[in-house]
Amino acid sequence: MKKPLKLFIFFLVYCILVTTTLTACAFSADHRGEVTIEKLAGVTDESASEIQQAADATRRLFANNTDTLLEKPVNIVLTPDRKSYITETITRFQISELEAGRLAKGTDALSSRNSIIVNMSGLTTPRQKTFLIAHELAHHYQHQLAGNQADQVIWLLEGMADTVGAQVVAEQGYFRLDQYQNNWQSGLRLTASKPDLRQLETRTSWSQSISQYGFQITYKTAGLAVLTLTEDFGQRKVLDYFRGLGRGETPDTAFQKAFGMSITDYESQFTNTLRIAS
Q1: φ, ψ for residue 20 (rounded to 5)?
Q2: How distant is the alpha carbon of residue 179 from its chain centre?
Q3: How confident is the model over 206-220, as pLDDT tens digits?
Q4: Which of 127, 160, 166, 218 could form a disulfide with 174 if both were Cys (CB 3.0 to 4.6 A apart)?
C-alpha cells in the first residue's frame, strides 16, 4: 500500500473515532441531566407531553442564558389527584403521612433528591403546568450549585424559582414576562398589608408570612424581588449568588460579590420602592 493512501486511511479512521467519541460524550452529558416523565394511571398522554415540553424549555433556558447544564437526572412523577400525590410523596420521599400532609398543603408539586412529584388535578392549563415545572426544576439547579446551603435566604430561593417559571412561560408564548411583572407589582401595590423582604429570609419567617399574608402575596413579593435583580444584573449574576453559597460564602458575601451591594441594602431599597409606589 502506498504511503499517501496509508496516511489517508489513518486520517479517516482517526476522524471517525474522534467523531464517535465526541458524540458519546455529548450523549453521556445529556443523559446525566436527563429529565424523565413517569405518568401514573389517570394522567393523560397530552398532559405528560406538556410537562415534558416544559422541562425541555427550562433546560434550554438555563443552557442558553447561563451555560448551566443539569448534572443529575430528575424524574418527574405525575399523579392524577391529591390523594395519589400525597401517597407518592410518602413512598418516594420516605416520610410520614403527617409530614407529607404538611408539605403538600397548598402545593401541587414537591421536590426532593432527584424527583419532582406533581398533582396534575391542580393544574388545569398549559401555562400553569409550565410555570410549576420550571419553578421546581429551578430548585434542582439551585441545589446543584449551592447544595444544602441553597435555602440560606428563602426569598432568593423561591423568588428565583418563580422568575424562572415566568421566563419559561414567556418563552413558550403563554404569557409575557412584562405581564408577570405588572401582575406582581400591581398585586403588591394594591395590597395594604404585605411582608417586606427582611421578613422572608428564614423558613420560619416564610411560613409565618404565608399564614399572615397568604401564598400569593408572599410568593409575589419574592418573585418580583428576584425578577428585578435579574433584569438589572442578568440571570448569570443570580446564579453566581448560589455558586457563592456553594463555595461556603455567607449569604451577605455571596450577594455582595454577585450584585455589588449588601443584601440588607437591597431589601430596604426594594421595600421602599413598593411602599412609595403604593
Answers
A1: -65, -40
A2: 19
A3: 999 999 999 999 999
A4: 127
Q: Which residue has the cell 420560619?
A: 204
Which cell is 101 given? Answer: 400532609
For residue 2, pLDDT over 70 is answered with: no
Residue bearing cell 489513518: 10
Q: What is the pLDDT of residues 112-134, one digit of tens each?
A: 889 999 999 999 999 999 999 99
End-to-end alpha carbon distance in the chain: 85
Compute CA distances 182 → 178, 185, 224, 257, 267, whole Å. 6, 5, 9, 29, 20
Query: Three-state SS for 44?
Result: coil
β-pairing, 115-119 vs 35-39, is: unpaired
Q: Which residues contact 102 (CB under 8 A, 6 or more apart)?
A: none
Rounded distance, CA 213 to CA 271, Å? 16
CB atoms closer than 10 angstroms to residue 92: 17
Q: How many CB atoms lie within 10 A of CB 174?
A: 16
Bridge partners (DSSP) listed for residue 76 = 37, 116
User: pTM to 2 decimals?
Assistant: 0.87
**Count of alpha carbons within 13 Å of 178, Cβ hemisphere only?**
0
The domains of the chain, with CATH numbers, are: 34-277 (1.10.390.10)
The half-sphere exposure of 79 on its side-chain side, counting CA atoms within 13 A, is 22
Residue with cell 460579590: 257
d(CA 242, CA 41): 37
